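Note to self: keep these together.
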Amino acid sequence: MSIKILKDVIEIKSGFIVVKDKAGIRDMMDSLIYGAVFEHDDEKRKSLFILIKEIAKACGAVPASIQEFYEEMGRNYPGFTVPAINIRGLTYDTAKAIFRKALQMKVGALIFEIARSEIGYTKQRPIEYSTVVLAAAVREGFEGTVFIQGDHFQLVRKNYLSDPEAETKYVKGLIAEAIEAEFYNIDIDSSTLVDLDMPMVKEQQRPNFEKTAELAKHVRQLQPSGIEISIGGEIGEIGGKNSNPEELRAYLDGFIETFKGKKGLSKLSVQTGTAHGGVVLPDGTLAKVKIDFDTLRVLSDMARKDYGLSGCVQHGASTLPEEAFHMFPETGTSEVHLATGFQNIMYDNKHLPAEFRNEVYLFIKQECAKEWKEGQTEEQFIYSTRKKGFGTLKKKWWDLPSSVKNPIMRELEDRFALLFEKLKVTNTVDIVKKTIKPVVVKKEVSKGLLS
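Structure:
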């Protein structure tokens, strides 16, 4: 699509977008976002992303921080758990499916997120991810706050031990890039630095809370005027030992002493028995996981009553059985992170052509050969690495015909509907509107784009 045709539906006044025809821009969005994502010229691609985001804001889809709502949740838990959804592949189609269900079920408490590692292997820099999500909102006619989150902005332990300054600088750079891309929710993960060899719990957590405080100050320095970014912390590295009250208290007390800021953390990720992606058995199926819901209940209650946080966050939950999800609201969990289960629906759907799936798997075997661990079956290796089949092959996924993508999206919609119901976030539009007054951060658009 020639970008000049946009003149019929938008205009640029003093550098800012004015939408003349919302229905018209919705009809053009599929081709507009496709052209932006696969534009080869870096500067033009960035300009197109900014243009699309400004169109989205002018249409009423506004990137926002969930901070004020989480403060209210800390005072009075509303009985539901906010789903935070990581989209690794088919991002535009999946985001459209999420918005369709959100509109249908009146879901306002919903987060779109991407982790540091995912940004790399899915080849979705923050500006692309936020733009694609907002483009999907426009296409589906969604108006309201859109919560976009940096998940696991993590200090990689081996990198940090090798060169603490370089690793810290990298994460600070990623935070700056994400905030510029309008990620107004950032989860800092320095739980990788916890030193269990120290005899006292506070000393074990010290590297964690000190680095979290340093990075949280960095976030506060960069956040736009009028926006208080929601910042999450983490005490238990996912896949490690379960968290306990003593660790929570040591971490949060240490953070408060070190941070000394007015607004600190809004939530806390803990470990309760899950692993990212689930635990894969030799035949490629997933082992049943037992979550310690008592730990979630106790720690969420402490986080709210003693520290004013929204509660605790559960990671690695998307592969849990359906009957587990109702437990998150019942235990006062404030947020749950979901990723691999949606990826599995894409790969395992019967409508995905076998030849395409095999092409992706062949690519993984070649590109990720060094990750094939001794003793792993081929099924285990493929399952644990197929998340890396989205980035380099992104265009081929986007170019799959609607006869393939539509059935996949229908299955995803059913899954989103089930999760929204179980997590009790249906009919949450009003409570979100009541607590959050989004601030539109306008960015100038070059008038030359439309000429």
